[in-house]
Amino acid sequence: MKLGPKIRRLRKHRGLTLKDIAEKTGYTESFLSQVEREIASPSISSLKKISLALGIALTHFFEDKYEPQRILFLKRGEGKKLNSAASKAVFRLLAPNVPKGRMEPLLIAMEPGSIQGKGRYSHKGEEFVFLIKGKMEVFVGDKKYVMEEGDSLYFNSSLPHGWNNTGRGRTVVIWVVSPAES
After folding, report:
1. Domain enclosing residue 16, as ranges
2. Using CA atoms, how far apart are residues 55 and 53, in angstroms rounded to an integer?
């Protein structure tokens, strides 16, 4: 199922209106309607806010079918992939189809100049970042962390945060988000 119709189905199933989601996310009803109709393409940070407003994990948007997994093994290159033109990054879900998981591990490949959370956003939960390749800046609260290969960062997601790839080449990072339990 396409992303927009999936969001609409989840919203209606929960008895929520576009206005309800707009109030919870800070986005306009018009933008949300365009997302549901596949006219606008949301960034990952937008999807995260929408998922929190719907009370679901971000990974729920990328599940083809609901097959609960207690043990999940993926070979290299497997996992759901999402290309985000808005942030110039490719997100690979490392644990798809894990319902009510306590964390959402992602492998993110960022092109030079890639930016996520330009206006910075916050949500309930915690995050862990491990930089595999390249260089990037992560902004948490009023602090800037310059990360290089092998560096890690852990923070409370309620602090406004965002990142950008400041290097000349591709940056690769493992980013783990622990969503609030619903």
Report:
1. 3-62
2. 5
